[in-house]
Design brief:
Blueprint (H helix, E strand, L loop, with lengths): L9 E7 L6 H10 L8 E8 L2 E8 L2 H4 L2 H6 L4 E7 L14 E5 L2 E11 L2 H10 L10 H14 L3 H11 L2 E8 L4 E5 L8 E4 L4 E4 L2 H6 L3 E5 L5 E5 L2 E5 L10 E2 H7 L5 E2 L2 E2 H15 L6 E4 L5 H11 L7 E3 L12 H11 E3 L1 H4 L3 E6 L6 H12 L4 E6 L21 H4 L2 H7 L4 E4 L6 H4 L5 E2 L1 H4 L9 H7 L15
Parallel strand pairs: 14-23, 17-20, 20-21, 21-22
Antiparallel strand pairs: 1-4, 1-10, 2-3, 2-4, 5-6, 6-7, 7-8, 8-12, 9-10, 9-11, 12-13, 15-16, 18-19
Helix pairs in contact: 5-6, 9-10, 11-13
This protein binds iron/sulfur cluster.
Length: 481
């Protein structure tokens, strides 16, 4: 939403269509409801037996596609992708799905996640003479699947072999001439669900897009599971399941996912409200109104209000039409940008002690601006409550967290952040209270808050941590997906 935010990672969608050939259009609606996961580029690829059609470009889903394009994207199987990347990698050729032609025909993949051994794998393939067309690690995955398919009896076997080779986070939809495959890495960092319309099957990053295409939720794809859809129905391969403790990204619940989504059986909206209730218990304060920073702070603010009996109100109004063209890379523009994206509802806050709930503080620039705007609008006091613990560590599993030198919690104590942000008080959710999100129903990754990485991290991380300058992407001319 604003630039002092972690960026959504990517969203994937796939359909095996037994009801019509309008698969591209269904993928369009699926991607439209995953738009919050990536706003830089998007694409759809459709396969009908041997014919592959694809369309992808920079921009939002409704900017890239129109009726004329969608009319041409007909076929039995479609996959789609919305993408966010680091700035350098935000180019058209890195847009997904990736479609390749090889010995066995066509192969399409859409990927959400980030491989931790992509650099080594790419270097190895390049030394063997392989040419890469993009700078995304998803192409490494496509390359391995294609190589493995040549010596394996089926595409699902090739996907399984790929899972023995790559490390890190990936939720994938893979399309071959006759099959649609969904798979999730053995840690299950990123979500992936399976749904069904009348006779057709759908994979999506989030359940909200199943609703958008009229599909019924069947189940989450399990960490490590390969789900294969073809004319014979659904097959599940669980060779890679239960190899590790599941580690769904806890930040999916706090910020990434839409509130109307369920992840691993847990409502994102309820999870956020529970965090708000917990914040009210941990950090009570006298106030006149509780407001949420749109969008992901809203549900937590409602929870805080319910627990504290302080009325909830709308204090900030978001301009919902700010698209990728508004992305402002410099600090100065970033600060000005907040004013355009969020405006204060003066009637709500004037003369009041305001409790403002947001999902996180990254660099701290947005908070300073919001406090300034609220005070200019007449707020008497501003008490900030944050529905996550302080960000202290980089993410190697697909979230674009800035380097530690830019994370405000790495530079300042809570008291200092309160002071530099001109807040009257500040309270974060405690690390040991993250459990209330999942209600202890599932294990999760909280490494960016705790430093406890549930899976191997790339070698370059040690050197960077020693220097206390973690450039997570310098690695690799790779971009996140
Ligand atoms: Fe999510 Fe943080 Fe773990 Fe990355 S390190 S997967 S952002 S919880």
């Amino acid at each position: 939403m604003h630039d002092d935010r972690l960026k959504e990672e990517c969203g994937v969608f796939g359909i095996f269509n037994n009801d019509s050939t309008d698969s591209g259009r269904i993928a369009y609606y699926g991607l439209f409801s995953l738009q919050h996961r990536g706003q830089e580029s998007c694409g759809i690829a459709v396969i009908d037996d041997t014919i592959v059609k694809q369309y992808k470009d920079m921009g939002l889903v409704p900017e890239v596609f129109n009726d004329e394009i969608l009319d041409k994207l007909t076929g039995k199987i479609a996959i789609g992708h919305v993408r966010y990347s680091t700035a350098g990698g935000s180019i058209r050729q890195n847009a997904q799905p990736l479609v390749s032609k090889y010995l066995k025909g066509a192969l399409g993949i859409s990927h959400n996640g980030n491989l931790t051994n992509a650099y080594e794998l790419r270097a190895k393939f390049e030394s063997e003479g392989f040419i890469f067309q993009t700078s995304i690690d998803s192409e490494v995955i496509a390359n391995i699947i294609a190589r493995q398919r040549v010596t394996n009896p089926s595409i699902e076997n090739a996907v399984s072999e790929m899972m023995n080779i790559v490390k890190g986070s990936y939720s994938l939809v893979v399309m071959s001439p006759r099959k649609l495959i969904g798979c999730r890495d053995p840690h299950g960092f990123r979500p992936l669900v399976l749904g069904k319309t009348k006779n057709s099957y759908v994979f999506s990053s989030e359940t909200c897009s199943l609703d958008a295409v009229g599909a019924k939720f069947i189940r989450d794809v399990e960490p490590g599971e390969i789900v294969v859809i073809d004319d014979n129905g659904v097959t599940s391969i669980k060779t890679h399941c239960k190899k590790f403790k599941p580690s769904i990204c806890i930040f999916e619940y706090i910020y990434f996912a839409r509130p109307d989504t369920y992840i691993d059986g847990i409502s994102v909206y309820e999870a956020r409200k529970n965090i708000g209730r917990q914040l009210a218990k941990e950090h009570p304060v006298q106030g006149d109104i509780v407001i949420g920073v749109p969008d992901s702070g809203i549900a937590a603010a409602i929870g805080y209000s319910e627990e504290s009996n302080i009325p909830y109100g709308i204090g900030l109004v978001k301009n919902k039409y700010v698209g990728r063209t508004f992305i402002s890379p410099t600090q100065e523009k970033r600060e000005n940008g907040v004013k355009v994206k969020l405006n204060v509802l003066k009637e709500s806050v004037k003369g009041k002690k305001v409790i403002m709930v947001d999902d996180s503080i990254v660099r701290g620039t947005t908070i300073k601006q919001l406090v300034k705007l609220l005070k200019e609008a007449g707020a008497k006091e501003i008490h900030m409550r944050v529905s996550s613990p302080p960000f202290m560590w980089p993410c190697y599993y697909g979230t674009d967290i800035p380097s530690t030198k830019d994370l405000i919690a790495c530079k300042y104590s809570v008291e200092e952040i309160t002071k530099v942000s001109n807040l009257d008080s500040l309270g974060y959710l405690s690390l040991d209270k993250l459990d209330i999100i999942t209600g202890s129903k599932c294990n999760y990754c909280d490494a960016c808050f705790s430093g406890n990485y549930p899976a191997e991290i790339p070698d370059y991380s040690n050197e960077e941590e020693e220097n206390n300058e973690v450039e997570i992407h310098k690695s690799a001319k790779f971009t996140l997906c």
